From TrEMBL:
UniProt-recorded name of the protein: Transglycosylase SLT domain-containing protein
Domain Transglycosylase SLT: 14-111
Top-level taxonomic group: Bacteria
Organism: Nitrosospira multiformis
Pfam families recorded: SLT (PF01464)
Length: 148
């Protein structure tokens, strides 16, 4: 990965580590990380008066439920892998609990609103396919559903 800029190295390493920890497809988490395009310390105000925070642009609407675990906006905003871990946890929750196909469920990371979800979904699928090829070229992976 030395052919990548340092911020991309962090994104990739943190995304893969978090994907493994929460058993979500690494190409999907990498696609979300790329699509969100956040940076440590970044706060982006949304039209609904929430903020998207940090590298994974984690929405503050989710943080009120997480406050009971001691998770604060400052934790999400900081540099390092924490925001990727939190995003992977959230994606796993969407994958397991939401309705619809996989792409609709993971696009709920962005929005449950159908037209916003659909637009995010199309772009996320394109990015995930690109990241899948990137991962396949660099890592030995196995289909867990295929008998060996």
């Amino acid at each position: 990965m030395m052919d990548l800029p340092p911020d991309m190295q962090d994104r990739i390493v943190c995304s893969i580590e978090a994907a493994v920890k929460y058993e979500v497809p690494a190409n999907i988490l990498l696609a979300v990380a790329e699509k969100e395009g956040g940076k440590p310390g970044q706060w982006v105000r949304n039209s609904n008066n929430t903020y998207d925070i940090g590298a994974m642009q984690f929405n503050t609407a989710y943080l009120s439920d997480l406050a009971k675990y001691g998770i604060t906006p400052a934790h999400v905003a900081q540099a390092g892998c924490y925001s990727y871990t939190l995003a992977a946890w959230r994606l796993r929750t969407h994958i397991r609990n939401d309705q619809g196909d996989l792409w609709t469920r993971v696009s709920n990371y962005h929005s449950y609103t159908p037209h916003l979800n659909a637009a995010y979904r199309v772009d996320l699928m394109r990015r995930a396919a690109k990241w899948g090829k990137w991962l396949d070229a660099r890592f030995a992976t196995y289909e867990v559903t295929v008998a060996r």
